[in-house]
Design goal:
The complex is a heterodimer of chains A (495) and B (105). Chain A is built from 20 helices and four strands. In chain A, the strands form two sheets. Chain A has a two-stranded antiparallel sheet. Chain A has a two-stranded antiparallel sheet with strand order 3-4. In chain A, helix 3 runs antiparallel to helix 11, helix 7 packs antiparallel against helix 9 and helix 10 packs antiparallel against helix 11. The mean pLDDT of chain A is 90. The chains are: A mainly alpha (495), B mainly alpha (105). Chains A and B meet through helix 6, helix 7 and helix 10 of A and helix 1, helix 2 and helix 3 of B.
């Protein structure tokens, strides 16, 4: 077998950077170690540049189809490395204050990025699973990173136990699909499903259901979401942002490729299942978010709600017309767009949470009372982020939800789009409650920290970038939309 | 005479026992052992199909490859999980999952 190893150069760069960060950590004096974030972020950006130079027009497979290099993989490679670089820089101040081993912290984030890239590039179930575990293992350690913190411990145990449990379910599903279809390659599964349409083996159906349940755990779709709030609350805040944004985006990229390239011919069997999951997730996530008193928990439930919206897009990936499955490219566009828009808004929100908790020392919602008087800039960014998450016009969240609901309508799932709109209105309520706290309420009297909240220069710049991105993509989305449709054209051809 | 169905039943039984253990056991270590049982149910399923399926030999051998990967990853996963459980035990003097209730709702 002729393998073009040079195609993997960007991945080698990433792994090299991770090991370099680990090694240089030993050589630096303790107080300078948090500066390693610059090396990690630089390496991530460098690999994004390398991949764009090298794979711009490449469509190639490695190891006989295990690894696919196409526009879809390229788009997510650049997305994930940029996202991780921003997260590494956001965590700079947090790491300086709370983390004793910065080198390991940053290196694990880079390894997680490698795992995410593998999940997108995988053209086969086992490879996808191994990449998923590389991401999960890094995150298990990162979540439990504050070894002596009771919340961190508890979050770590809950995450790893439910993560391992869901891996077992996913693997059982994979073993059944392999048993019934005789292959774990996406194209092979697709062929098997197409040639046996209408008379599918019950083992295969059960396997599909188990795979959907396993992936449902990973993206925290209801009713498999119970780990998410606890893990989000107990994890170090930059890692909460990583879980909410990056690992979720990676899992959805994997789901998109799997459903578009492998499971599409069996649309009839899984569409209803995904639609029901979407409804449960939207309703539970958005309703339970209302009663939260901790901002990280509130954002956790809000992200569960957002997973519901994304699942609407996954359910809309195709529709059946005269017995044939017609793919809906708009749905895959919408899911990717929503992931990007959601990443901008959520990163901005979490950066504000980090700045506030570094200053006031708590993540309780009551700490946000009167934030507009203490730091107009932070409350402006937070308000814009929350408006975008709620899907108000002029922000990117409106546009991406519009795409999602249009796609659902195009796939004949109007009822689903209706429920999604109601859920979206409900979400506006708890987002606005935070805005009301920040702009109308007064600072709590029990709060005796200095009135003005100082923001480190780096966070200031990152917040500005995220703010501009959230607004700019909302009013001028064309370049992003073009890139996204090139990406989804690679997995859903001929639509 | 052994056939594929025997392996599938054994595997389903092991998997169910594992799920029951995860839900019913209170000690974090026993929960992890139950997860190991679930993973081994997957291995039994794969080995059974690899041995008794009527497909070509190169298709069947892939099941054994899968098993090797799963054993390796499961070992790493349990190692990590035990390290985290050990931290909990050191900090609290107990590894009972019911007592992990600092955070709820």
């Amino acid at each position: 077998m002729n393998v073009n190893f040079s195609l993997l150069a960007p991945e080698y760069v990433l792994v090299g950077v991770a090991f370099a960060v680990l090694t240089i950590d030993f050589m630096l004096p303790r107080r300078h170690r948090f500066h390693l974030s610059w090396l990690a972020a630089g390496g991530l950006v460098l690999s994004a540049v390398v991949v764009m130079v090298q794979r711009w027009d490449t469509v190639e497979t490695l190891y006989g189809g295990l690894f696919i290099a196409d526009k879809f993989g390229l788009f997510f490679f650049v997305f994930f490395t940029t996202l991780t670089a921003v997260l590494v820089l956001i965590s700079n101040d947090y790491v300086r204050q709370h983390i004793r081993q910065p080198g390991e912290f940053y290196a694990l984030m880079v390894f997680a990025a490698v795992g995410m890239i593998g999940m997108v590039a995988a053209g086969e179930l086992l490879t996808a699973y191994v990449a998923l575990e590389l991401l999960s293992f890094s995150l298990y350690v990162l979540v439990a990173f504050r070894r002596d913190d009771a919340h961190g411990n508890e979050a770590g145990v809950k995450y790893i136990v439910l993560g391992a449990f869901s891996s077992a379910i996913l693997l059982y599903g994979i073993s059944m699909v392999w048993g019934a279809a005789g292959t774990t390659y996406y194209d092979g599964i697709s062929e098997h499903l197409a040639s046996n349409a209408g008379s599918l083996d019950s083992t295969l159906i059960l396997g599909l259901a188990l795979i959907i349940a396993g992936l449902g755990f990973k993206v925290a779709a209801a009713p498999f979401h119970m780990w998410a709030p606890d893990t989000y609350q107990g994890a170090p805040t930059p890692i909460t942002a990583f879980l909410a944004v990056a690992s979720k985006a990676a899992a959805f990229a994997l789901i998109l490729r799997l459903f578009a390239q492998a499971l599409m011919p069996a649309l009839e069997e899984w569409q209803v299942l995904i639609a029901v999951l979407a409804v449960a997730t939207m309703v539970i996530g958005n309703l339970v978010a209302i009663v939260q008193s901790n901002i990280k928990r509130m954002l956790a439930y809000s992200s569960v709600g957002q997973v519901g919206f994304l699942l609407v897009g996954v359910a809309a990936l195709g529709h059946i017309e005269g017995g044939a499955v017609i793919p809906v490219t708009l749905a895959s566009d919408a899911v990717i767009l929503h992931l990007v828009g959601y990443a901008f808004a959520n990163l901005a929100a979490f950066t504000v949470v980090i700045a506030v908790s570094n200053h006031i020392g708590t993540d309780e919602l009551s700490a946000y009372s009167g934030l507009a008087k203490r730091s107009p800039y932070l409350s402006l960014v937070m308000a814009v982020a929350l408006f975008s998450l709620a899907g108000l016009p002029f922000f990117v969240g409106f546009l991406t939800k519009f795409y999602l609901f249009t796609a659902a309508a195009e796939a004949g799932l109007l009822w689903l789009a209706g429920i999604a709109m109601v859920a979206s209105v409900v979400s506006l309520y708890y987002y606005l409650m935070v805005v009301k706290r920040m702009f109308i309420d007064d600072v709590a009297e029990s709060d005796n920290t200095p009135l003005t909240i100082g923001i480190p220069r780096l966070s200031w710049v990152l917040l500005g970038g995220l703010l501009i991105g959230t607004v700019l993509l909302g009013v001028y989305p064309q370049p992003l939309a073009d890139a996204v449709s090139a990406a989804s054209g690679a997995i859903l051809p001929g639509a | 005479m052994l056939e594929l169905a025997h392996f599938q039943v054994l595997s389903a039984a092991l998997f169910s026992i594992g799920i029951f253990g995860v839900l019913a056991r209170r000690s974090a270590v026993l929960v992890l052992i139950s997860i190991e049982i679930m993973l081994n149910a997957v291995n039994v399923n794969l080995v059974g199909i690899a041995a008794f399926s009527d497909r070509a030999a190169d298709v069947r051998v892939f099941g054994q490859i899968l098993v090797v990967f799963i054993i390796t990853i499961a070992a790493a996963e349990i190692g990590l999980a035990l390290a985290i459980v050990l931290r909990v035990f050191r900090n609290r003097g107990s590894a009972n999952v019911d007592e992990l209730n600092v955070m709820k709702w």
